Amino acid sequence: MSRYLFDNSAPQASGRFSALETCYDPVSRRQLELTGLAPGWRCLEVGGGGGSLGDWLGERVGPDGEVTITDIDPRWAEHGPQRPPHVRLLRHDIVTDPLPHDTYDLIHARLVLLHLPERLRVLDRLVTALRPGGRLLLEEFDCGWTPVLAAPDEASAALFERVEAALHSQVEKAGADPLWGRRVLGAMAGAGLTDLTATTYAESWPGGGPGIALHGVNIKQTADRLRADGITDPELTAFQALLQDPTFVVNSYPLISAHGRRPHPEATPR
Ligand SMILES: C[S@@+](CC[C@H](N)C(=O)[O-])C[C@H]1O[C@@H](n2cnc3c(N)ncnc32)[C@H](O)[C@@H]1O
Questions:
Q1: pLDDT tens across 177-186, in order?
Q2: Is 125 touching ligand 1 by the criterion CB < 6 Å?
Q3: Which residue from 16, 150, 196, 229 lies 20 to 30 Å from 9 (Cα-Cα)?
Q4: Residue of the CA atom closest to atom 14 of ligand 1
Q5: 120 found inside a domain
Q6: What ligand 1 atom has the least distance to the C-alpha of 139?
Q7: Structural domain total, the chain
Q8: Does a structural domain hold residue 162?
Q9: For 198-242, what is each residue's pLDDT tens digit?
């Protein structure tokens, strides 16, 4: 049973999607292009969030192709542009709801499997849903490397690290794996995919910028849990103020884009 910590019913979800889209959509679009994406492809965008990448895939595959955008709670993607008939949005739980077999040319999921305790089972399901030769692109954070790159003083850096550590502990308690980014390629190999590659992207996030806002919404949405874990209200207030200070700079979450192909049956060793 999934216990997604940052569920989309919270008002912070829209801030999360705009931070992710601003910082990572250009990276994801480049990685999607590198799969060979072409008009006519049949694509699945899993856990599509705000829907931006699914809509972009729809433009790239054109009316001869097909894009299905899924989410366990698609309310934010419903606010998107009027979609053409070849792009559909589905309420769908990737853990439990039916998925067709041998169907997709490309499946993409960004920051979805990281949150799912059943991530290895879901990975197997995604592989089965690909047509032989089809491509899987999973993009996941490695939350274990977000060093403070500049800070007004040592206490500020220590505060950031303490609050982040408390958040990661909550994320783990909910069944997520904050280090999944460094494990995903190995898991894809274990699931039988071939032609595996991984590319990692990170950038600096200064206070007041669009990227660091992700920390702000994540901490706001989990504030009650963090308080229960010993983070105080003055610390939460100071943390939010720090995120607005341009002299405070952190490394973004590194995004690992892992790509692989489902082998053709004749290529599978006996
Ligand atoms: C961190 S957000 C990422 C959204 C989007 N992929 C992006 O990168 O901008 C994770 C998304 O996965 C969705 N999600 C969580 N559990 C899911 C499940 N079991 N099946 C489908 N979607 C799920 C959430 O509702 C949320 O929209």
A1: 999 999 999 9
A2: no
A3: 229
A4: 47
A5: yes
A6: 8
A7: 1
A8: yes
A9: 999 999 999 999 999 999 999 999 999 999 999 999 999 999 999
